[in-house]
Each structure stands twice: as C-alpha cells, then as structure tokens.
Amino acid sequence: MTIPSLFVAHGSPMLALEEHDYARFLQGLGQHFKIPKAIVVFSAHWDTPIQSMTMDQTHTTMHDFYGFPEEMYKITYPALGDPELNKRIDELFKKNNLNYTPVRDRGLDHGVWVILQKLYPEANIPVIELSVDSTRSPKEQYNIGAMLAELRKEDVLIIGSGGLVHNLRTISEGAQTDEWAAEFDHWIAVELEEWDLKSLFDYRQKAPFADQAVPPYGLEHFAPLFYAMGAADDERKAKRLFQDYQYGNLSLNCWMFGS
Questions:
Q1: Which tops the pLDDT comparison, 36 or 1?
Q2: What are phi and psi of 38, to 5 degrees?
Q3: Beta strands of 48-151 (E only): which ranges?
C-alpha cells in the first residue's frame, strides 16, 4: 500500500506539551499507515526564494520561538538525516529542472519537530526538511510537491506542515470558533475533496474570508498544503482526518492525500 502524503497543522509551539484532542489524534496518526522508512517535511518555518534541503546526517533541534515555558527549550528531537534520500530528491529535482540549495547545520525547526514528536516520539525515522517559497504561485508549489510523488511508493512519508487558518493578529482567548474561520475551512474542504485545482489555485479570489484566514504576511503557512497535495498528484484523493480550532480561529486540521 502506497503511503499517503499529509497536510498537518502545527498550531502553536505549545502543541509539543499540550494534551488535547488534536495532540492525541497526532499521537495515533501513524497507525493509519505503515511505518515509513523516511520522512520529508515541507515546513512553513523555512521560507526561501530558492528551494532548500537539509543535508545533515544528524539534526539539531531549533527552538525558533520566544516567550514560552522553559520546558519548551529543553525538548530535543534527535532524528537522523538520510544521505541516500538526499541523493534521490536531488535526482528528482534535477530531472524536473528545479534548482535547489543544499543546507547543512541548520537543524529542524518547530514546524517539523513539534508534529513529529507526536507522530513518532522515538525519533527513530530519518528526516529531511524542505523549504517552501511563499512567493511562488500555488500551482508552482503543487508542481514541486508532484516532483516527489514517486517517493511515496518508496515508503517515504511526505508532510506539509503549516496552518490553513493562521492569522496570529486575530487570535483570542475565546472558546468559540470564529464563523469566518469555519467558513474558509469549509470552502477549502469542499474544493479539496473534489480536487478542484482551478478553484484552489485561485483561492485568494474565490474563498470566503481568504484575506483573514491567509493574510498577505502569512502565506507561508498555507503554502505547505499545495506541496503536500502535489505529492499525491498521481492519486488525487483527499480526506480530512481532523478539524478543530484554538484561540478562536487557529485551525488545527489534518488532511490525507492519496491512498
């Protein structure tokens, strides 16, 4: 069975410590499919104009946030890299004429390790992190993900880590979900389930409340959706596995693409 690709909302860095429905869902998510031999993550927290890829044999843990409890800065996720997978991705990028920058000694940002320490807490599966480019069109982002679709047949799990509704200027402590956030997520869900690329690629014009859900200064959190979708271009099936909200409108959702 081919491993699917995933879009996983990483929410707040506090997800690493929190115990709630979404955290528990992520802890059991790996049981939905066979254990991957490696993981590739497109992270919203690595936004570069040229595609970049980690090349390390061992990863450090980046604590790329501030103002959080001291316990957060003690968490490590000592996953290994995968030189052979680096070569395979290099081959696929070159085959599709995509220039990229190899990067060493960067570490894994919290868009990667916060979700992986829930999915695979033993950190015993090799990880490669890939950047996103929020200035590219959704179609270009999708096409880059599609370059890696073959990897899913090689037992590589491809994840886009970000947030479909991620506007930190609008969050609140209220327990009630903002209607505009739910409406945007619903529109996205309908288009994903129909795999309507034309509408999705034009979401800024067609989706309700797009400017609130995906503000111009926060495009990088929505971009991983298209990379993850593209990685399942050969199967074009979408299934929502989880949906909830924090802080009024911070969307916590997970989508599975492909098998």
A1: 36
A2: -160, 165
A3: 51-54, 100-103, 127-132
HSE, CB side, 13 Å, CA atoms: give it for residue 86: 19
* 104 within 8 A of 57, measured Cβ to Cβ: no
Tokens at 94, concatenated: 């070159």
Beta bridge partners of residue 38, listed in sequence order: 156
Backbone angles phi, psi at 139, to 5 degrees: -65, -40
pLDDT at 228 over 90: yes
As a whole number of angstroms, the distance between CA 193 and CA 161 comes to 19
Edge-to-edge strands, sheet with 250-257 = 100-103, 51-54, 127-132, 38-47, 156-162, 5-9, 250-257, 238-246
Angle at 225 between CA 221 and CA 229, to 5 degrees: 165
Give the C-alpha separation, 186 to 245, whole Å: 13
Mean pLDDT of 127-134: 98
